[in-house]
Each structure stands twice: as C-alpha cells, then as structure tokens.
Write a structure and sequence with these properties.
Layout (H helix, E strand, L loop, with lengths): L1 H31 L1
C-alpha cells in the first residue's frame, strides 16, 4: 500500500512539473511574439 501511495505522489509531482514547464514555455512564446 505504501508503494502505491508513493507512486501516486510521484506521478502527481511529475504532472505538476510538466504543467509548470508547459506554462513557462507558453509564456516565453507569447513574449517572443
């Protein structure tokens, strides 16, 4: 059970990192235009 919780936590952290990277990428694209 602990492993499952850790896996879910890691997946959530990765998704947050991906969302932050995507938003920062979009922001830089808007600035370039």
């Amino acid at each position: 059970m602990d492993r499952f919780i850790i896996m879910r936590y890691n997946n959530a952290a990765k998704q947050q990192q991906a969302a932050a990277a995507a938003s920062s990428y979009i922001n830089t694209q808007q600035v370039d235009k």
